[in-house]
Structure formats: structure tokens, C-alpha cells
Amino acid sequence: MVSDTQTAQTVAISPRPLPEIAFPDDLPVSARRDDIEIAIAKHQVVILSGETGSGKTTQLPKICLAMGRGREAMIAHTQPRRLAATSVARRIAQELQSPLGQWVGYQIRFQQRTDATTAIKLMTDGILLAQTQRDRLLKAYDTIIIDEAHERSLNIDFLLGYLREILPQRPDLKVIITSATIDADRFARHFATPDGQAAPVIEVSGRLYPVEIRYRPVKLPAEQAAEIEGQLEEGVQERDLCDAVTDAVDECARHGSGDILVFLPGEREIRETSEALRKHHPQSTQILPLFSRLSQIEQEEIFRPSTRARRVVLATNVAETSLTVPGIRYVIDAGLARVKRYSWRQKVEQLQIEPISQASANQRAGRCGRLGPGVCIRLYDEEDFKRRRRFSEPEVLRSSLAGVILRMKSLGLPEIERFPFVDPPTGRAIADGYQTLQELGALNMRPSGVDSFADDSALSLTSTGKLLAKLPLDPRVGRMLLAARDQQCLKEMLIIAAAMAVQDPRERPVIAREAAEQAHAKFADKQSEFLAWLKLWDWYHEQVAHKGSQRKLVGVLRQNYLSAVRLREWHDIHGQLAAMVGEQRWRVNQTEATYEQVHSALLTGLIGQVGLKSEEASHYQGVRDLRFWIHPGSKLVRKAGKWVLAGELVETSRLYARCIAKIEPVWIERVGSHLLLKSWGDPRWDSRRGQVVAHEKASLYGLPIYSGRLVHFGPIDLARARETFIREALVPGEIDLPFEFVAHNKKLIQSIERLEHRSRRPDILVDETLIAGFYDRLLPSEICQTVAFKQWFKRLDDKEVQRWKLSKDDLMRHEAAGITTDVFPKTISWQGNALKLDYHFEPGSPKDGVTVSVPLVLLNQLTALRWEWLVPGMVKEKVQWLVKSLPQKLRKHCVPVPDYAQDFHARWFDQMSEPTISLTAAVIADIDQQFHVKVLESDFRVDSLPAHLFMNFRIIDQHGRMLRAGRNLSQLKAQFGDQAQATFQEMATQGERVIADQALERITQWTFESLPDVMEIRRGGKSILGYPGLVDEETHCRIDVFDDAQTAQRSHRLGLLRLLRIGLKEQIKFLEKNLPNALRLGVLYMPLGSWESLRGQIIDAALSRAALEQQPWPKDAESFSCTRELAKERVGLLAQELSRLVLSILEQSEVARKRLVQFKVHESACKDMVIQLSELMPPDFVMRTPYEQLKHLPRYLEAIAVRFDGLRSDAIRDQQRMSEMAPLLAHYRRARQALAGAPEPGLDQFFWMLQELRVALFAQRLRTPYPVSAKRLFKAWEALQR
Questions:
Q1: Adjacent-strand bridge partners of 840
Q2: Is the Cβ–Cβ distance between 332 and 263 less than 8 Å?
Q3: Using CA of residue 1153, residue 1154, residue 1159, residue 1161, what is the dihedral sign?
Q4: How far is residue 602 from each of residues 342, 595, 645, 778, measured CA to CA in Å?
Q5: How far is CA 640 from the centre of its chain?
Q6: Is the pLDDT confidence value at 29 over 80?
Q7: Residues 423, 157: contact at Cβ < 8 Å?
Q8: Which residues are CB-contacts of 741 (< 8 A; sequence separation ≥ 6)?
Q9: Residue 989 has what pLDDT?
Q10: How far apart are CA 186 and CA 1241, in angstroms?
Q11: Buried residues in 1130-1157 as b, exposed as e (16+ CB within 10 A)
Q12: What distance in Å separates the CA atoms of residue 469 and residue 646, rounded to the nearest whole number?
């Protein structure tokens, strides 16, 4: 980071004579002095390739001074490091015998020692680059020396290109480029004159002792491994880097005395190697680490030896140049280094281990040839060395170019693609630089029509970019300071920005790591490691304020494992930044900033380093598909939260995030709004908001920031929002507007839709597109929400308002003739009650067809006959389907079927409102009458009819709430019959009866008036019908009212039987004592119940056949007396007949039960027959079973016996027939269970059909009274379900 903003100085011509300039004869550069002077005089650029120890760094400025340079303007001499700049300045001043700051001065970051007479000025590359902001042609200098150019830092490469640009405008300027290992030809070509003449190259030999190079690769050659294979245990020959270093140190020790410098790639390798050497070598050997993060004390141990013992210094590449470790006679080179490389794809800096170049390898070897002959052991082979690149890759090819582009834009230089870099960067790296500046808001966003970032007119600096260009800072840091100014947190940001520019002052010695962690714990923050810098800053300045002396302060810092040097550097950088802010006249906040303010400002520069916690793993998902982990040394590694901001992302073994802080995604949204990629779901109308809305989601370079946010779609896409407003708000009328046209249009559309549902024709109402077109012609193009519409509509005159009303002509395709209330009524009358009808046209929907709303109290009174006819408008279609379901030989008489249905509709129209027969029976009668063709009800395949041709019943309670809906009336009665009866009884007790009150309790003879078939009960202006009947109470009867005629009839029959028993008391007693085979019957019936129960059933059945077999039943005292006399005559004979039939049934049942014991091995068949017996013969089977079916029970039981015979001979065949019946049995039993004991004649009939099917399958020789098969029963079942 370049941080100096010193104004370039113009020196006055010194009136003093030049100091005495001496050139040491022992320096090789002195011998080439004349050649150098001639080259400088004749050429504007000179390339000097001087080996280490040639004296070029100190003598070149003196040569230029002796030539008369530096008199009217200064001689600029750059160094890549501050330490080198100050030490060289002191050395040259010493040789000129001049105080530092007069003839020779220096300027580095935050320090400057020059005056008006300074002729030679040492500085870092960054300082000279910063001066181009105010002195674009560098007129303060007549000579510029770029030293150590082989390092090819970003500043050096930019300076070389910049100097080439200004040289034609500064013919008086001399440029000298020097290095120990330089690609001279490339630099000579770079600074070639317009006529193609390359810059001159002068080579100066070095002053090194000979260095012997030995190659000892980490992986031993195969032949060496084979030689030692027999001496070492298996696997030992697989050496690693630690083994190779240990062996190399041994080799150096055998060669002679002297210290050893070992070059390793990183701190981890240094720790591992240090541990290995301590175990391998005697304690007298000193093992010293050397890397940039060492404390000052640990560094002093290396540069100020305190013992004569052999030292082994384990160093990173910091010891490769600039630093000279004393006493080194041997170098061990691992050939590796950690190189910081910027990934334009991932937007992170990667610190990867890479092989060094040949030039760097030679630099390392030169570290051991300064005191005497040295030895360099390379831990790789010679072929590997020869394959490596000659020179290190320039930093411009592996760094972010954002700062370079920003500076070039501000200086008005050519686009970076045309800038004369020695090694031009790639197009992708350039594009990344532009993109980074756009992230920071420094460049205008690239228009969609611009294909290249190189279009300067399309990518001009923004106001933010112009401010950033004035700041000699990394663009990201500058952007954070700008945001801090706006966020009122500049005080805090200055501290954090300065901290990010220096090495961490918190020292963590290897031998005292835990103690250091404890000492640093007081600076930690639970949410942000950036705030830890603020706590450390406050603590440090508190110690400075209360220090007793400088020595005590340093002692306190050491106790807390803090570097005093780095803290001072931090303080100096902060002061420099504060001065820069003062120059810009920015106001520093006096009150403490909030957490959000500080981190929002940080986000502006680090927005590409945010992360979202993965739900599945421990990593964080970053932008551009990055995955990173929090560095293990972080205090927040387990507490970071869902969203984090990282101060830096560095890739080593993993991509690690350092300096972590918790953040909120809403801050990202606010700071990076210009970078978010937003997308929207399909827009929809929201009547509550009165707007067209859509779900919005946003991502930052692929990282989801938010999703599912409901936003107003109008500002996003007005045309589409307006279209949705018309289609979903105006067309269906789903809009809250107090205007007449809304209700009018909605009501008109609904009325036409009802016509469509009734007629089941979807072609009456015009398409929604036409309705939308109607509104589109009237609605202004800028309106898409309720508020704007209201404001606009209120300004219309009456004539314009009327235009908004739709008419039937606008909405109907045709007149829809025939769709009247006569054929599609709104209600249907049932027993004096108007039941509401609803029509719905939606094939496949449960509501498809016509639905009748039935009050619960009327449920039990409904009969299926009426509802087969649906409504007159649907009869024609249903008749068509019924006729089409007939077999071809019958259907052919009715063709064309539509015409027949039309004629049927006309002939039967008058009977449709109150039919006396079912629709199927009517079709049978009509076909017989018209064509003299006999059709049976079983010929119709009712199961093939679509669902909408069956009435849908909606059961509602007294409060109007729907209980259930369905098309199977029997199932609805079974489910809600009891509840309906209870509701009816409640109404009956509260209503007004139409017959006089009578003594209805404890009836033993007919002493009451005749009972009507129906009685009316009124309540609340409505009336319902009730059915009176007798209720058997065992010793007497009573009269009650029922809501269902069949239920009333069943109860009345039992009541009549009770009155007959009481009236024929003597005859009944005689029968009870004289029934034939009484003892045998009682014994056989014992598994089912007592003899008394069976005897009562036989007598009741005989009475029923004798007196109640024929209708009508007695309705008054006189008719009851006649019935009683008739029963008196017949009951005895009928009882004897029934006794014999029941005996036969019980005997057959006994045989079947005994044989079941013998066939237990056939478990499934036996289980089926047991269930069959229980269904045929429940305890009350005599009374429950109609006499016509009771006569067939012996045959059904005999069929069971025959089945046993077949089971013995062919069990597999029995199993197959059981499988054939199984689905039918399952259907029946589920339906019976659903009815919960309620009677269902159709289901009863299906049960007896099942028994006939059993006879047909298992006992064919017994024959059946009518054809029966599984297929026929399946059809019968489907018809029953309808």
C-alpha cells in the first residue's frame, strides 16, 4: 500500500562546491566507471547488470553526481524496501562525508530527511510512484535510478512503463535500471529508441567467493534407493523434506565450520524442520527460525550472534535479498517459496508453495559466498533446476490490477491494454481489475451494448473513483475510508485501516503460545475481530499515557506479547492516514460509532469477502462459488454466526478467512445494491396491497443474499405489471374500488359463467383475452396499481365512466338459447321445501355437475328415485349415455341416439319435476312403447356414466355449515342418519302437530284413532313431513314420529306384532308349548342363543306371514280386529312350517361346523367359510332374513358341504375361486361397515347375489335360480355405487 503524499521538491542550485567523491578501487563497478559515464551521456536509458557485491547500489549515484547530474534537479534512487532505502542513504552520505539529509537524503513512508540542497534522494518505489500524482513528468529529478529491478514488483513494473511514456517529453531525464540478476535483453528492448535501437547494457562482475553447488534431491534416485534397500527398513527410503534438510545439515557439518542458512517455503515447514533438527543434532547447535512475523527479540538473536556455537537458521525467502545474515558459510535451498498469487477467478490471494526461479536460486546461493568459499546444497536435481523459468514471474502478472487502472485513469494515461508494461498482463486480469473498481463504485457500470472493458468512454471514473485516485492507498482501503466518512465512523476506520497495513503486533512465540493467547484475550470481541483492533489501540494509548518511562512501556508490552516496533509503525501509519484525511478536510466523528456503521464501511471495500454458513458442513459459501473456512487461530471459529465478513482470504492448504466479523445480509444489500443480480418470479395481483407483486431474490456473484421478498413489480417492468393488473385485477373484478363499473362488470360475468355451468358449455363467455383487450384500450399505459387508478378515474367525466361498463354483447359469444330456469332451475321442491341447486362445470372435480343442498333434517326422507332425473336440462345428456351403454342389438333401435334423447326429453318433460318411476325405468318403458323392444334394467351399464350425471348431495346443518358432500345417498344416510333423526325429533317436539293429541304411551290394544301415513310439522314458517308409527316396548307399544317412511314402517311392523301377541295371548302360549321338534331345535340353536329366543323368532315370523304379509296393514281398530282374527286362524300352521324349515337350516349348519374342524389345515378356506356362516346365520336370522331368502339357506349351507369335498380333491382350485371372489367380498364388507347397521336394500340384494356366486363357484351341481358370475357382480357393484 502506497501511503505517502509528499509533494515533489524542486532543489535550488547549490552554491557550494561538490563534496570530495571517491570511488573504492576494490569495487568492480569502479573499474567500469568510464564506460558507465559514456553510456549515460550518450543514451537516455542505461541497463546495468551488476552481480552481488559489485558496488552498483552505492557508486552509481556518486558517478551521476560526479557527471554534474543532481545540480538543477535531484537524483532519484529507488529501493524496493524501506530498510534498504535508509541504510543505502546512510552509506552514501558516509562515503561523501556529508551529514544525512544534506547532499544525500531519503524519503520513505512517514519519514523524510531532505533539504533544499539535497542532490541524491533515496526512496521506495511507491514514494516515487505517489509523486506522479502531483508531478506528472517528475521534473523534480534529472536522473532516476531503479535499483533491484529484478524483483519486478507491481510498483517497479508500473514505473518502468510510466517512465517509458514520459521519456519523449523529458529528453533531459536519464534513467538507469540496475539489478544483480536481470533479464537484460528484455529491458533493453523495452526501452528501445523509436528507430529500434535497444538501450545499452553494461555488465559488471561481482565480488563473491566461489560457491560449490551440490544437488541432493528430496526423493532419492532409484539406484540409490536400491543400494540402501537392504540396509534400511521397509518404507524408510521414502524421504520427506525434513529428512532431506537433516541429511544436508549433516553434510555441511562434515565439510567444515560455519553457520548454515536453510531456505524453506513457510512457517509450518520451519516448525517441522526445527523439531526434526533438535532431535537429531547436539544441544550445542542453535536452531533459529527467521520469518517476517518473528518478534524483535527473536530477530536480534539472528543478526547479533551471542555464541560461537554453530547456528542453523531456518528462513523463508525474506533472507533471499536485502537481509544479510552474518556468518553464513553454507546454504541449503529447498527450491520452494510461498508466492502470493491473485486469482482473478476467485477474487482471492492464494499463498501457494511454488518452485523458485533460476534467478532466485542463484540469489540464495550467493548468500554463502560473501565471507569465503561456500557450499550450496539444493534439495532438487540439476535437471529440475534447468527446467525452471530463468526469472521470477512479475508481480503484475499475479496481482490485482485495480489500483494500477485507477491511477492510470486519474493520470489520463492510455488504457491499460496499450500501456507499455515490460510484461503486459492478461486480458482476464485486466477485466478483473475493471470489475473490482466497479465493485467499489469507482467506475461507471459497463453499458449492455459495450463488449469490451477497454472502451474508455464507457468506463469513466465516478465521483467516488476520482476521490479514490487522489488517495495514495489501495482502492479497497480508500473506499472503506470514503464510506467511513459518510457513515460517521472515520475515527474507527482510520485505526482499522492502519492496522490492516502492518503486521499483526500481537506476537505468538512458539514456546509461549498459550501465555500469549491468554494475554491477548482481553482484546478479543465476541462478534468482530476488527473491533479487537480498536480495543488494542485504546489499551496501547492508555499505557502510553500512563508510562513511567519508555523502558517500562516496552516491558509492559513484552509482558503482553506485543511488538513495540509494530505498534509504533501502526501509530505512524495512523498518523499519516489522519494527516491525509485532514488534507481532504474530512470531519472525524467525535462520538463512538455503532457496530453497524463500522462494518457497513468495511463492507464497501471487502464486499467480495462475505460468506454464508453452509447448512451441511463447516465451511462458508462465498461469492463466485468460493468455499472458505475460518482460520483455526480465530477466536470466532465456533461463534462466527450465519453471515461473516473476512478481512482477507488466503489459500494455503485450504482457503482460509482471517479477521472475521459477524454481519447482517441487509448491510450487504444496502452497500452492494449496484452489484446485486436480482430476479423475480411470475408477477401476480395482490388485492390487499392493491399492487402487482412478485417474489424477488438477489445474489451477489452467485451468493444468495435474500429470496422470497414480495416487491411491487411496477417499477421493475411496467408493461408486464400493467398486463397483470388488467388480467388479474380488472378482468375478474378482484380490486377494491368504489366505482360502479367494478360491481356491474363482475356481476355480469358471474351471471354468464353460471349459464356456462348450467349448460356445461364453456363457449358462452368470451375469452379473457378479449375482456383484457377491452380494459387495455381504456387504461393509460402508466397505471398498474389501485392508488394510481383511483386518482386517475376520479378525474373522468360521466361519459368516459360509462365506457368502462361491459355489456352482454361484449361478453357473450352467442345468445345461449334454451338455457332457462325451466330446464336449469335454481331450486328444486321436495316435500314443500325448496332445495337450492348449484351448477359447476369442471370435469374431474368433486363439484362437477349439479349439487343439491339438503338440510340435515330432510336427509332420511330423500329417495333415490327423484334424484336420478337430476334437472330437466341434464336429462337429455343422461339418456344419451344410458342408451349408449346398451348392447349393440338393443342400441341400434335408438339411433341416432341424440335424436332419440331429444324426443325422449320432449315426451317426458312434464313428468320430470315429479317423476313416479326411475329414469332407467322410464327409458325402458319408452323404448318398449316406441320400438316394441324389451330392455332389462341389467342391460344398462350405469357404471359407464360420467360422475356429473349423478346428483351431488351437500348435507348442511341447521346453521348452514356443510357436513359432507357426495353422490352416494345411502352412504350419506348411514353416516348422518342418526344425527338427522335426532334433529328431526327435536323439531317434532317443538312444532305444531296437525292431528289432535292422543294418549300415545303404554298401548296394549287399538284404542286410538287411525294413524295417518304422513303428518306435517311446522317450524319457523317452514314445514317438514313426519311419518307416525308404533314402537315396540316388549310389554306394550307407543306412538312416535319418524323422518323416514321406511324406518317408520319397520318400527310400525314390530309394534303391530306386539299388539297381535297381546291380543292372541292364549294361542301364543299354546304354540310356545307345542312347537314340533322343540328339543332338537333348542340343542342345535345353542351355539347362537337360547331356545326362548329362537321360539320367539319363529312365532313372530309366523305372525308376520299370517297377518302382515299383505299390504295395506291395519290403520284403525276395525281393520286391526280383522287382521287379528286372520292371524288366529293361520299362525299355528305357519309356525309348524317355519319350525321344520329352521330345523333343516340348523342341521345343515351343524354339519358344516363339524366339518370345519376336520379341515383346519386349509386355514384361509376355513376362515372364509366361518365368516360366511356368521353372515348367513346371525342370532336373529329367522326374523332378519326375508322368507323368500330363508328358503334358500339350506342350499347355501349344502354348498358349503360340497365345497369341503372339492377342497379335499383340489385345494389350489378352491384358492383360485376364493381369489376371484375376494375383491367383491371386500367391497361388500367395507360398504356394510360404512353403513353402520343402517338398512340398504341394494346392498342386501348384492349379499344374496354373493351367496349365489358361491354356489356357482363351489357347488355348481346345486344350480342357481338366475345366471351369476364374478363379472356380472362387478358390474352390479359399480351400478350400486352410482
A1: 849
A2: yes
A3: positive
A4: 21, 11, 9, 52
A5: 22
A6: yes
A7: yes
A8: 801, 804, 805, 806
A9: 65
A10: 108
A11: ebbebbbebbebbbebbebbeebeebbe
A12: 25
- Which H, E and C letters describe 953-990, residue by residue? EEEECCCCCEEEEECCHHHHHHHHHHHHHHHHHHHHHH
- For 226-239, how does the pLDDT look when each residue is reduced to its tens digit (9 = 90+)? 444 444 444 444 67
Cα R_g (the chain), whole angstroms: 54
**Residue pair 1108/1156 in contact by the 8 Å Cβ criterion:** no
Spell out the long-range contacts of 796-805 with Cβ–Cβ below 8 A and sequence spacing 24 or more.
Answer: 801/739, 801/740, 801/741, 803/778, 804/739, 804/741, 804/745, 804/778, 805/740, 805/741, 805/744, 805/745
Helix axes 1045-1063, 1091-1107, angle to 10 degrees: 100
The phi, psi pair for 614, rounded to 5°, reads -75, 140
Cell of 206: 561481482
CB 1142 within 8 A of CB 1082: no
Q: What is the pLDDT of residue 876?
A: 92
Residue 254 DSSP label: H
d(Cα 317, Cα 331) in Å, to the nearest integer? 12
Reading the block at residue 101, the C-alpha cell is: 539529509
Q: How far apart are CA 1247 and CA 1196, in angstroms?
A: 12
The residues, any chain, with a CB within 8 Å of residue 821's CB and separated by 6 or more, are none
Average pLDDT over every residue of 528-542? 92
Q: Beta strand 174-179 with 45-50: parallel, antiparallel or unpaired? A: parallel
Rounded Cα distance, 443 and 436, in Å:
9
710 confidence band (pLDDT: 50, 70, 90): very high
User: CB-based contacts of 18: which residues, under 8 Å, 6+ apart?
Assistant: 65, 66
Which position has the grid cell 445474489? 699
CA distance 772 to 624: 44
The grid cell for 1259 is 357347488
154-166 vs 402-411: helix crossing angle, rounded to 10 = 20
* Burial class (CB within 10 angstroms; exposed 0-12, middle 13-18, buried 19+) of 488: middle
Helix 1117-1158 vs helix 1091-1107: crossing angle, to nearest 10: 140
Q: What angle do CA 1071, 1076, 1077 make, to 5 degrees?
A: 135
Q: Which residue has cell 546495468? A: 48
**Cα 1054 from chain centroid?**
69
Least confident of 218-227, 617-626, 1027-1036: 218-227
Q: Which residues pair with 332 in a beta bridge?
A: 262, 377
- Three cell numbers written together for 619: 465451511
Smallest CA-to-CA distance from 953 within 859, 1023, 877 is with 859
Distance between CA atoms of residues 945 and 784, nearest Å:
47
Least Cα distance to 871 among 909, 831, 897 occurs for 909
Average pLDDT score over residue span 1105-1110: 80
Q: Contact, 434 vs 443, CB < 8 A?
A: yes
Amino acid at 738: P
Alpha carbon distance 700, 684 (integer Å): 26
pLDDT of 1255 higher than 50: yes
Q: Residue 691: phi, psi to the nearest 5? A: -140, 160
Give the residue from 1029, 957, 1016 showing the smallest Cα distance to 988. Answer: 1016
- Report the run of H or E that residue 696 belongs to, with start and end: strand 691-700
Q: What is the DSSP string of 894-927?
A: G-SHHHHHHHHHHHHGGGSSS-SS-HHHHHHHHH
C-alpha cell at 762: 364453456
Q: Alpha-carbon distance 464 to 482, whole Å?
A: 8
CB neighbour list of residue 975: distance below 8 Å, 6 or more residues apart: 964, 1234, 1236
In whole angstroms, how far apart are CA 543 and each of 394, 524, 539, 553, 556? 43, 18, 6, 7, 8
Q: How many residues does the chain have?
A: 1282
